[in-house]
Amino acid sequence: MRVILELAIVLIATKLAGDLSVRFKQPAVLGELIVGMIIGPALLGWVPDSEFFRILSQIGVILLMFIAGLETDVEGLLDNAKSSTSVAVGGIIFPMVFGYLAGVMMGMDQHHAVFLGLTLSATSVSISVQTLKELGKLQTRESMTILGAAVLDDILVIVLLAVVMSFIGGSDVNAMLVIGQKVLFFGTIILVAWKGVPLAMRWLGSLKVSEPVISGAVVLCFIFSYYADMLGVAGIIGAFIAGIAIAQTDYKEKVGRKAGPIAYGVFVPVFFTSIGLRVTFSGLGDQIGFIIIISLIAIFTKMVGAGLGAWLTGFKPFSALRIGSGMISRGEVALILATLGLDNGLLAQQYFAPLIIVVIITTLVTPPILKILFGGDKGEARHAG
After folding, report:
1. Where on the phi/psi map is residue 379: left (φ > 0), alpha (ψ -120 to 50), or beta?
2. What's the pLDDT score for residue 73?
3. Which domains does the chain show, CATH number per domain?
4. Which residues of 196-226 are buried (b: 16+ CB within 10 A; e: fewer)?
5. Which pLDDT score, from 0 to 100, does residue 334 have?
6. What angle, 0 to 180 degrees and rounded to 10, lies between the N-to-C axes of helices 126-135 and 51-70?
7. Cα separations in angstroms, 172 against 226, 261, 323
8. pLDDT of 296
9. pLDDT in tens, 260-309
10. By percentage, how much of the chain surpasses pLDDT 90?
């Protein structure tokens, strides 16, 4: 029963930390991220980084992105597709190039330096989504562009990873097969979202049981997420698409009203806290220089590269800076890449823990930066032109 006590500690800690963060005029999510480090192995050691919390955390981020999909304006997302593409490409090229150069200068071999650059190219938009949601800016044109760019970034980075592993990795990976899986995923998921989800929701909503609509919505969210993961796309992308699909049905308001308490009551707080639980400072004394340099490269190359992509497609400089900042967090996507690199001989053991710290630093700095940049006016209109 110890795990039940640990869950209670996590939930009360996140609520108190979130409240304190808001009182200091910062997004609640920043306090929730930091408190994980305080109650976790890094400091107090009250809560371990266990498999139990990782599972709850995975459910949390899936539900978070599902709700983001429910609240997304599809027309605005499509209107900004060109900008999202440019942002994604710029946000991959800059971190990859400078990450590679930094790796070489630090004495890494070519293969490891390439993988370092690739890992720094990842983006996890879940932290940005929550921060923008708290700030009431999830429906701005900048936010629509960030969401679209994050989806494309995930696809491109996974494809690039497959190419890298097929040439220099320790496993036999067919790059064309990986690309084919992505095409299969989006081809089938769009068809199912368009034709299948409305039918499924109507059928599930007619069941003579308690809460059939929200149960059906969560089932579809999990199935979409699992299908995405099965075909090598991040599960959060599947959840996001499920949310968009249900938002086009008559059940949008009902699902949105009931999904929030389920997600934010337990699962989402655990997700934010679990990021801090992964932090440990033991054995990092010799890697402080690596952590500082790579963290700075990770933050500024994503900000500049993605921001430049936004500026080249018509955004004003300040809006472009906002978009670049929204792409900074590497989150769980980079954590997954780092683990894959370690398992396949593309990342040396000595750099694994420091790289995890870098990923967490990018996650921690994103909320206050977005708070500063989005804390003023309402942002650009949702649609281009």
Report:
1. left
2. 74
3. 49-267+287-355 (1.20.1530.20)
4. ebbebbeebbeeeeeeebbebbbebbbebbe
5. 79
6. 50
7. 23, 44, 37
8. 95
9. 898 888 898 998 888 788 777 776 677 888 899 999 999 999 999 999 99
10. 30
